[in-house]
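Quick one, tokens below. Sequence please?
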């Protein structure tokens, strides 16, 4: 293979295409030229001979030709000359290491917010099944330089489900962005830049009116008053189960006739209207202690005049 003289003068020699690329695409590489130590005395003093290495510039048929590869090799040589040398294969961070750090970060973030680490659990499952078997041994720099290979992987994962493939690609993208925030030497190009995400449709699954009697019969068998109230309030208010499970009594506001879901999915506080039926279920979870001391509608003590008792009796059948 012919070496490019323009790259050689800058410390690199363009070798050409490698027929053994991990993505089944012919990889365009640049060979780093090692500089031997000038004398034996220098080697005896502890100096080491520079090792030759290679950098993946792109892939034939994926938007790069020989001329563009030589230009990319000159850019890398200039970056090295300025002291911004990218780490070698042995010292470069692998995708498996970056993914483990990203999952640990998700768990720590969930713990700080007082939430369940469900996102970290789902990310770990996607990584083990779809991402690590394909890219676990790749370095992050190689991953960024192979958007065509990542796009081909996304198409293969689509066979397992279009939504699953999209989530796997977004997880890989988020992992790379997290690693790039910790290591400024990583290339700015995202590995998923060439991915064409599949079209997704929102799920319209809901409890059909014909299934309400079955749900009512199953709900009546629940013995714990707290769990029973939780299921009924979740049905009446339509909250996410995880968010409703974090509801605290200071966030129940009878005077405003609402309760507050703190730190929802979008980090917002959601004020949910509280009907008489919801108020009764909240009271039943305390064994009626709250309604005996104050009105659930206006928080007035029972010793004071309150017109809401008649309203609660009138709505008792709701």
């Amino acid at each position: 293979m012919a070496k490019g003289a323009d790259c050689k003068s800058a410390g690199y020699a363009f070798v050409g295409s490698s027929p053994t690329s991990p993505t089944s695409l012919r990889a365009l590489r640049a060979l780093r030229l090692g500089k031997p130590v000038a004398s034996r005395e220098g080697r005896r003093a502890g100096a080491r001979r520079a090792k030759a290495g290679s950098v993946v510039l792109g892939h034939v048929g994926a938007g790069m030709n020989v001329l563009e590869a030589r230009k990319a090799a000159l850019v890398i040589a200039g970056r090295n000359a300025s002291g911004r040398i990218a780490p070698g294969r042995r010292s470069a961070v692998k995708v498996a290491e970056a993914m483990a750090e990203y999952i640990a970060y998700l768990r720590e973030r969930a713990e700080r917010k007082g939430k369940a680490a469900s996102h970290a659990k789902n990310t770990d499952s996607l990584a083990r099944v779809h991402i690590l078997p394909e890219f676990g041994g790749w370095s992050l720099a190689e991953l960024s330089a192979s958007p065509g290979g990542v796009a081909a992987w996304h198409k293969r994962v689509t066979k397992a489900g279009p939504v699953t493939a999209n989530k796997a690609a977004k997880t890989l993208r988020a992992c790379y962005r997290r690693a790039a925030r910790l290591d400024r030497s990583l290339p700015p190009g995202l590995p998923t830049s060439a991915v064409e995400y599949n079209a997704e449709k929102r799920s319209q699954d809901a409890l059909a009116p014909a299934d309400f009697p079955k749900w009512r019969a199953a709900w009546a068998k629940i013995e714990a008053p707290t769990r029973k109230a939780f299921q009924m309030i979740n049905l009446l208010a339509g909250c996410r189960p995880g968010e409703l499970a974090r509801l605290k009594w200071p966030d129940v506001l009878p005077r405003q006739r609402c309760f507050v879901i703190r730190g929802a999915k979008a980090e917002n506080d959601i004020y949910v209207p509280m009907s008489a039926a919801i108020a009764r279920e909240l009271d039943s979870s305390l064994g009626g202690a709250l309604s005996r001391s104050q009105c659930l509608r206006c928080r007035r003590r029972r010793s004071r005049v309150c017109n809401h008792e008649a309203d609660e009796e009138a709505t008792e059948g709701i």
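The chain has 14 helices and six strands. The radius of gyration is 31 Å.
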